[in-house]
């Protein structure tokens, strides 16, 4: 009998999200996707986006509907792509009532100054966020809201582990999804400069995380394009944009980049052929890291003041590369020196182990070892 897998998600279910949750990567399983956005995040359920439709997607409006459908499906597994939060325990309780194994994951660990792996640094850099996190931990302990240990945890990279994930009954070590998208046989000619886009001024990810918008597109893109023009003049190569999937939600998104080539859904392939890569804080920095190509983070004052901005500097520090301030650029000679600085292979190897892969047998995709 074919085993059943339910995947729950509470992000705007675009085609990109459908691909990212691996809905088409479970050979031999009957996969159902439950779109829990309206139930779990009503405040952003009306955000403007192109909803992806597939026969195996069911919108979930509230807890009662979720529990009823789970009782009907009786899945063998539930894979949680919502993330640990106020709904985790009730999801686990529903799984237990249906004899369903609850699976969580940390497949894209990311360098952050707000980290349980470095509590002192976290406290010094972000005391307010640290205090809130400590308060929430204590509150959950007092009110007994802490979730149960997961049945299965999928982990990628040494820094993916947390006390809750470590309590899982079964731990499966795999790799970040980006790792599997790189192909060793690809052409590696260095014939352009790659910008890995974050859709920084327009992304609805800020709504998902209750973050304030960092900057307006009318301010951001002229600054970015001016920098690109200078790079193109200095290095004699064009800038190609690996566009963030959220950009698809805007009909003329490519127009913001000053006539440059803008490509969606090809970041892995584009990374193969670039001379160097630039980004703000995209997790796709893993591509140039795995390829051992120079990767630089870009910042500016408004970004530095945000929580995301702290990540920009920490990524740069982790890779032993300089972060480039778009509003305070060095002279040409110094900028060229920064860009041409050789890759620190030891730092790249450490980053790979911490945030990309820490196992000799990751399988053919992040879910390949799931049994």
Spatial sequence of strands, sheet with the most strands: 3-2-1-4-5-6-7
Largest sheet: 7 strands, parallel
Low-pLDDT stretches are none
Which secondary-structure class do the elements indicate?
alpha/beta
Distance between the termini: 14 Å
- Specify the overall morphology: globular
Report the average pLDDT across residues.
86
Our count of helices gives: 16
In N-to-C order, the SSE pattern is EHEHEHEHEHHEHEHEHHEEHEHEHHEHH
Kindly state the number of beta strands: 13
Helix content: 25-40%
Percent range for β-strand residues: 15-25%
Radius of gyration: 21 Å
How would you describe what is shown here?
It is a single chain. With 371 residues, this protein is an alpha/beta fold. Helix content is 36%, strand content 17%. It has a seven-stranded parallel β-sheet. Strand 4, helix 4 and strand 5 (101-106) form a beta-alpha-beta unit. Helix 5 packs across helix 6 (127-143). The protein is globular.
